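Q: Could you predict the 3D structure of DUF3054 domain-containing protein?
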Amino acid sequence: MDDQSFLARRLDRAAAPLAVGDVLVLMAMLTAGTLSHRPTEFLANEPTYLLGVWAPFLIGWFLVAPLVGAYAAGAVETAKSSVPLVVRSWIPAAAVGFVLRAVVFRGGVAPTFVAVILAIGAIALGGWRALYFRVR
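A: Sure. Here are the predicted structure tokens for DUF3054 domain-containing protein:
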């Protein structure tokens, strides 16, 4: 019998670089999206605005990604295993982010926004992971 908890089996220390990269990619994607709708002067005058943009999706990510296996041993083996895991993690993590954004944080969840965030997030995270395995 395995004495490791479910979560312990889902977290591999070797996945730490992937975790850091995933968070940076999500923050960059959300920042780029925000900058496409808000002028930089607005963000300069509202320095905490981006925290409210990042928070719901990062909370969703931290809650869901480990459970789905984005940082399990299989995630650090090859791009072929890692990319599908990160995409499968993104979809429910983003759903949590949308709920938090609608209920707790500022911002809407218009269908177009949902579609764009789901697609761009999957492409950005999958692309980052594919690049990671290509250059490591």
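Q: Anything worth pointing out?
A: Residues 98 and 113 are 10 Å apart (CA to CA).
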